[in-house]
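W.,

You were right to be curious about this one. When I first looked at the sequence I had no strong expectations either way, so I just let the prediction run and decided to look at it fresh. Below is the sequence, 217 residues in total, followed by the output.
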Amino acid sequence: MMEPISQITVTSNKNNEPVIIEGNLDKLYCVGIGTDAAVFRSYEIPQYAFKVFATDKLFKKDMELNVYERIGESSFFPSCYGQGHNFIVLSYEEGITLYDAVVKGIHIPPQVIEDVEQARKEIYSKGMNPRDIHLKNVIMNEGRAKLIDVSEYMKEGDDGRWAYLKRGYKDYYHLIDGKAIPIWMVESVRKWYNIHSAKFDYREFTEKMVKLFKIKE
């Protein structure tokens, strides 16, 4: 798999925007794009996922490998099988991200939220810090959850992302359950939070979002 991956260039973007992919994708296809890396699946060995990091984000690859080694076997996370110069090899996880579930109006059951809570407890028990858990980092399959992108679990501090998502699910999810939310609206929420996260007011924010959704309902 080294040759197909070597023909791909992943470049990071400013302002925490998704990476840019360039190169030959004849033997691979992209299944996910983040701010540090892109994930590819092979037509020949589809059971694996190849997470290719941007050149200036290779330190994230090393951090992620360290986390997967400490996690070991877990029903809440992919398995990690190895690495190359700018990529790691993971088990491919079937399902849909919570981001896509919201955009497509697919029901997110309470069990998914509980699975994330249990995964977080597992990470804490192994001496790490489950950060950066957001809609694109949770895969839902048959009503259960798996977490992806563990590169920040060695950092300190609480970024608040999951706490606010869990609270929003409890307080407001019933208002949008089964309804497809426009991508522009979800992206507006994401960008607004990134800008105001240091002084985030949950109630003010959710009230604005509810009003906005009613306008477009």
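Here's what jumped out at me. The CA atoms of residues 70 and 111 lie 25 Å apart. And, maybe more interesting for your project: The mean pLDDT is 89.

Coffee later to discuss?

I.
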